[in-house]
Structure formats: structure tokens, C-alpha cells
Amino acid sequence: MRLTEAASLTWERFNDTEHQGIRYFSLIDTGDEEVATKNTGSSRHIPLHPTLILPAKSTGRLFDYKIDNDKLASTSAGEGINPIIARIVNHDKKRVHSFRRTLKILLRDADVPKEINDYYTGHGQGDVASKAYGGVSIQKRYDALCKVQHPWLK
């Protein structure tokens, strides 16, 4: 997901019961909470790779990055994360956003169809439109994500 989407996550958006064996975060507005996404195609469920270890479920925000007046947290999160990336990756132009491109390439290299790749990364119609018009199921997105090796998560 995009940096501001991740930086603004709340535990109330985490689900590990609705789809058997699939953990995911919802980026879809509810009556209680609006999510800052880039566009309606970004309002989607994000399945998590099974090797991603999360802290114990809690309440409230997952991260304490400052949320700006425009309801985005990308500036604060970038200021916190980009220096760490600079220490790990020897490339002066690598930023956290670079890893969205990396994921797109990894999904493509794993022969994940473009439609599923786009839905997963928020470049497709997202779950808001798919509720009315069909789309790519969470199960399909999860299966596609599991095709990609993530050795850095171990």
C-alpha cells in the first residue's frame, strides 16, 4: 500500500476472521472512520503475506507518524523511514515509494496477472467499485502475493 495508507492504519481496520486463513487491512471507509487514500481505486482490502509478523493486536493507530491537515501521514513517515532505507540500500534516490515499484515487478516476475497486480497495489478499480461490478477476490490477491518470495520478512 502507499506510505500514507500504511502510516495511518488503525487496528480497527485489521481483519483475520472474515476470510479463512487470510489476514488483511481494510482501506475502505466505514461509518466510524474515513481512510485517506489517493483515489477510489485505492479503497481496497490489502491481504498480508503469511510471513509478515505483526505485533499483538491492539486498538488505535499502528504507528505514531504525524497526520497532517490534509489527513496524510506520508511526510512524517517518510522522514522516519527514508533515513533507514538510505543506511540499508546503497542508492541515493531510493525512497519508501520505490518499493511499490519493486512489488509490482516482483508480482509480474511471479507471473501474477496484471489485473490482480493492479488491484493489489491500488492501481485498479479497488474494492469500492468491485462490490458493485465484480473484481479480484481477496483470496486471489492473497494467492498472488504468496507467489512472491519475501526473504527479508524472515
Strand sequence of the main sheet, in spatial order? 1-2-3
Instruction: Write down the Rg.
Output: 15 Å
Query: Which residues sit in consecutive blocks of at least 5 with pLDDT less than 50?
Result: none
Strand content: 5-15%
Molecular shape = globular
Structural domains: how many: 1
How many distinct helices?
6
Class by SSE composition: mainly alpha
Helix content: 25-40%
Order of helices and strands: HEEEHHHHH
Main sheet characteristics:
3 strands, antiparallel
Count of extended strands: 3
- If you average the pLDDT, what whole number results? 83
Distance between the termini: 20 Å
Could you walk me through the main structural features you see in this protein, from its secondary elements to its overall organization?
By secondary structure, the protein is mainly alpha-helical. It has one domain. It has 6 helices and 3 strands; from the N terminus they run H-E-E-E-H-H-H-H-H. It has a 3-stranded antiparallel β-sheet. The longest helix has 15 residues. 27% of the residues are buried.
What topology emerges from the helices and strands here?
Blueprint lengths: L2 H5 L6 E2 L8 E3 L18 E3 L26 H15 L9 H12 L4 H8 L4 H8 L4 H9 L8
Antiparallel strand pairs: 1-2, 2-3
